[in-house]
What we know:
Blueprint: E1 9-15, E2 21-26, H1 32-40, H2 72-86, H3 93-110
Antiparallel strand pairs: 1-2
Amino acid sequence: xxxxxxxxxxxxxxxxxxxxxxxxxxxxxxxxxxxxxxxxxxxxxxxxxxxxxxxxxxxxxxxxxxxxxxxxxxxxxxxxxxxxxxxxxxxxxxxxxxxxxxxxxxxxxxxxx
Length: 113
């Protein structure tokens, strides 16, 4: 993978429930090779510096927080919710969730000696 330095414009910023933000950025027109380099960095944790081009000597604010993804239990909960939705939202989701969690627990218990 290559490191990329490019001018960008942050076109939208979204506040997330967990306190983080998501944003969209627009680049200038890119060559095919430059597009591929960006694509290779998708879903990778990156070090990034944003500096306005009008004042490159602006003081820096350093964000030291580590990247955190969703916990496995949160991912499972969300996945079960999507499954419940896809199955027509039959019954109460909390009941569906608890029943499926019990099934998973029983599967693991069967593997115990």
